Write a sequence for this structure.
């Protein structure tokens, strides 16, 4: 499980680097932005008991020293600094039981003190989708227990759908989408794909659909549908 989360975390970090690169930021500017963000990328996030997340970025930057992290209630969530055996470290967040906590990280960067915080709500998992269909095929139940896959602050449904389909989404009471779904296309697809209401999606080009959802208190959790056969 932790290996999977670390892969996801590195993927997210790579995406951040690509975005910043498109803005022609220098490496130094990227480092400073990462230092200022710290762990606050995790702020106002939902997480599920019995799962974990991993944070890499700020700890391993040149010039960052004296890194500490604490949880306001370790009976709800623990934060542990872990050596990865390749001259890098990470912070592993483990979510234990329902409740709300604040994570606080302190560190120095080139002699200057920084603090970053993240509010986390640990809650039992609930399927937020009222309706989720590709064409006439419902994929809503792929987010039900026990089929859904939990990754800390992420939850994935898995099934295989082909053809060109319209994506239909509605959420249960208490949930909202805070941005449109996005598509992770196959490596051979060079042109990005964008969500368009009532527009057909060529699923032969799509590996993954991301959904950006928050609860009524504003806590966010990522949901994704993987376009493949279960257990693949």
């Amino acid at each position: 499980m932790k290996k999977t989360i670390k892969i996801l975390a590195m993927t997210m970090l790579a995406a951040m680097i690509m975005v910043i690169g498109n803005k022609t930021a220098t490496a130094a500017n990227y480092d400073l932005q990462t230092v200022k963000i710290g762990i606050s990328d995790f702020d106002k996030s939902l997480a599920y008991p019995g799962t974990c997340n991993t944070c890499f970025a700020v700890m391993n930057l040149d010039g960052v020293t004296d890194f500490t992290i604490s949880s306001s209630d370790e009976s709800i969530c623990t934060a542990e600094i872990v050596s990865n055996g390749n001259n890098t470290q990470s912070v592993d967040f483990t979510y234990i039981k329902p409740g709300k906590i604040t994570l606080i990280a302190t560190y120095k960067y080139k002699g200057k003190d920084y603090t970053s915080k993240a509010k986390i709500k640990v809650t039992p998992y609930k399927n937020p989708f009222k309706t989720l269909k590709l064409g006439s095929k419902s994929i809503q139940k792929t987010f039900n227990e026990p089929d859904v896959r939990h990754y800390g602050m992420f939850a994935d449904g898995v099934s295989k759908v082909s053809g060109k389909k319209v994506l239909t989404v509605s959420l249960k009471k208490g949930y909202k989408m805070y941005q449109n779904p996005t598509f992770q296309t196959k490596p051979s697809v060079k042109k990005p794909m964008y969500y368009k209401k009532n527009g057909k999606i060529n699923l032969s080009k799509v590996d993954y659909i991301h959904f950006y959802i928050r609860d009524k208190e504003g806590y966010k959790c990522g949901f994704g549908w993987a376009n493949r056969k279960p257990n693949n």
Helices lie at 2-22, 27-37. The chain has two domains: 2-122, 129-227. The longest strand covers residues 99-109.
